[in-house]
């Protein structure tokens, strides 16, 4: 995401020096990139469509575990042709699609939404249970991402995450 913004010559990239943001999405947004621009950048980089969030609801709770959804930063959009269509802010996250497919036993189609656009439907779908799973899942996911960043320092901002 950061590399795509640099290639596009977005002025916000110049403001990132010394940023304390945890994610590329958060850093670029604080640098002045609008959520719509960020979504466009991520969609172009991943060659994925924008998420259609119109069908999200509590009926999807049974198909995708809330703790998994929070940990992976996704929300289930619908089931189409036996595949789970899932919205996420970071489709470029290594192993995301594979991890979801392994956990659900179904093929996954990804679509792009901002972290806020993912969080709201998570709350609708999982309600109060989301808060219980949220803290532990985020801490676990953060540990995994920190380990990956330490292993690959050049990838510090490759994870967009859900903390924007």
* Overall residue-averaged pLDDT value: 77
- Per DSSP, what share of the residues sits in E-state strands of 2 or more residues? 5-15%
Uncertain segments: 152-164
Annotation, overall tally of beta strands? 3
What is the makeup of the main sheet? 3 strands, mixed
CATH topology label of the largest domain: GMP Synthetase, Chain A, domain 3
User: Kindly, what is the distance between the CA atoms of the first and last residues, rounded to a whole number of angstroms?
Assistant: 14 Å
- The backbone outline, from C-alpha atoms, is globular
| Number of helical segments with 4 or more residues | 7
The CATH top-level class label of the largest domain: Alpha Beta
Oligomer: single chain
Q: Tell me the number of structural domains.
A: 2
CATH architecture classification name of the largest domain: 2-Layer Sandwich
Specify the CATH homologous superfamily of the largest domain. Answer: Type II secretion system, protein E, N-terminal domain
The chain-level structural class is mainly alpha
Strand order in space, largest sheet? 1-2-3
Helix content: 40-55%
Q: What is the C-alpha radius of gyration, as a whole number of Å?
A: 15 Å
Can you give me a brief rundown of this structure?
This protein has 164 residues and is mostly helical.
Structural commentary:
- The chain has helices at residues 2-7, 24-30, 35-46, 66-72, 96-104, 115-126, 128-151, and strands at 74-80, 83-88, 108-112.
- Strands 1-2-3 form a three-stranded mixed beta sheet.
- Helix 4 (66-72) runs parallel beside helix 7.
- It is mainly α and 164 residues long.
- The chain folds into two domains: 2-46, no CATH class; 58-153, Type II secretion system, protein E, N-terminal domain (GMP Synthetase, Chain A, domain 3).
